[in-house]
Amino acid sequence: MKKKIVSILMASILATMGTACGTGTPAATDESQNTSTTSQVTAANDAATQSSESVDQSPVTLRFMWWGGDERAEATIAVINKFQEKYPYITIEPEYGSSDGYQEKLTAQLSAGTEADIIQMGVGWMPGFVSSGADYFEDFNDYSDVIDLSNFEAEFLENNGYFDGHQYGLPTGLAGTALIYNSGAANELGIAEDMAGDLDWNKIVEIGKKVHEADSNKYLLTIDSTMMTTAVLRPYLLQLTGNTFFIDETCEMGFTRDQLVETLSYIKSLYDNGVIASASSTESYNESLQTDPNWINGSYLGMFCYTSTAEPAVKASGLNYAAANLPVMEGAKDDGFYCNCPQYLVVSKKSEHVKEAMMFLDYFYNDEEAAAILGTVRSVPPTSVGQKVCAENGLLDGIAKETVDVCQKYNGTYEMGLSTEEEPMAIMSDMIMQVAYGEKTPEKAADDAIILFQNYLDSKK
Fold first, then answer.
1. In this structure, how many other beta carbons lie within 10 angstroms of the beta carbon of residue 261?
2. In degrees, to the nearest 5, what angle opens at C-alpha 382 toward C-alphas 128 and 231?
3. Which candidate, 137, 157, 256, 281, has a CA 20 to 30 Å from the CA of 62?
């Protein structure tokens, strides 16, 4: 299903731009149809504007909370400022920072009823918040007179942010896991052909050993505990078992103890063979690996990241990077990787100004001015408007597009549910770091974690 959706989205930009530069809703193929489409979008935006102008224009203040790097923050604030120029009676207070601790902060705010009006939401967290029955979020479909959803491909919306008949979240882009590498250094070290071809987990180790043996100050990859969980632990197990980490229907683990030990042993081999630097040298840059001086100076040739963070990582170093294929083991029972969206934007039901929040998000997603400012800071845009503007500005020709193109090759099982909730993710991260720091063997770390995993699953039954 997801592969079909991505293909439909890609067809739009191919039709409108004459080149494969992103994803989008199906587009017209002749001038009259394009004129009709433009008129429809303009009419929809005019209708939204007329609706917003009928709102009481007493002073309104909204809070918008998100995480991300400096580039995302600067672009988002610029869009907020432009919106405030358009609607001077609406003030939007930005609340942003690192993703570190964001989920815990958001959980506490939702529990206390102190959350922001507009919230950037982790895709993996959303099912838990929705299934809690607390009714935290507004349904965007209830505000169709304020926000135009027609620029999203309908099937893409149904697979991203749609729960139990309600569109509680709007996807911020098209994204997934990415692997990027310094193409110039790869040529110098004689690994360019290897990195450009199909990869499996063992080949990653072989290439990494070659890099580190050639120069003890260089490592093939940099990775932190968060990405190790997302890009190695869970995909490896998915490929090995064909199951998600937890099986939601039965509240069981999708792996055996021996399979978890095998996966942790592989992670240990990455450190032991100099494929990645020690955890002590990378973990202080957790979820901000592009700020690590060793990344900036080229000591780390590659990085597991998200498609939405590939471009900031490349800009931080100023070197030339290419997107590599993602590793898939021989005989894999599942691709292990998949294309989804990086985040959702949601509106709190506790907001006293829901319509104004919807007005802002209509501008955020559907206005060409906003699209030009935001570019690809949250990956390839999810709307036809955003994709068109980014393509025209040449923003879908670099590493952002390359990583999304690679991501689309994989049709693995979408792990969203019990496997991605806060508590088990923390257990996974701790388990990995215990092995990385040499505090526990893979066997001991697996045994201890399985007890915690079982306790968590029992609490969900």
1. 18
2. 55
3. 157
Query: Between these two residues, 22 and 359, which has the higher pLDDT value?
Result: 359
SS3 readout for 142-172: HHCCCCCCCCECHHHHHCCCEECCEECCEEC
Give the C-alpha separation, 24 to 27, whole Å. 8
Do residues 316 and 95 make contact, with C-beta atoms less than 8 angstroms apart? no
Task: For residue 128, count other CB atoms closer than 10 A to its CB.
Answer: 18
Residues 6+ apart with CB under 8 A from 221: 204, 208, 270, 275, 276, 300, 301, 302, 303, 304
Find residue 179's DSSP bridge partners: 304
The encoded tokens of residue 332 equal 């894999």
Name residue 340's beta-bridge partners: 175
The Cα 429–Cα 384 span in angstroms is 37
- One-letter amino acid at 190 equals G
Q: How many CB atoms lie within 10 A of CB 312?
A: 21
Where would I find the H helices in 87-190?
A: 102-112, 126-131, 154-158, 183-188
How far is it, in rounded angstroms, from Cα 423 to Cα 430?
A: 11
Contact 64, 92 (CB under 8 A): yes
**Three-state secondary-structure class, residue 340:** strand
**Which residues sit opposite 144 in a β-bridge?**
none
Supply the pLDDT for residue 235: 98
Tokens of 440: 């526990």
Element (H or E) spanning 193, and its range?
A: helix 192-196
How far is residue 333's CA from residue 432's CA, in Å, rounded to a whole number? 23
Please check the confidence at residue 310 and state whether its pLDDT lies above 50: yes
pLDDT in tens, 106-146: 999 999 999 999 999 999 899 989 988 899 999 999 999 99
Residue 136, phi then psi, degrees to nearest 5: -80, -30
Average pLDDT of the segment spanning 242-256:
96
Question: Quick one: average pLDDT of 44-72?
Answer: 75
- Helix axis angle, 257-272 relative to 201-214, nearest 10°? 20
Give Cβ neighbours of residue 193 (< 8 Å, ≥ 6 apart): none
The mean-pLDDT minimum among 73-87, 133-147, 280-294 falls in 280-294
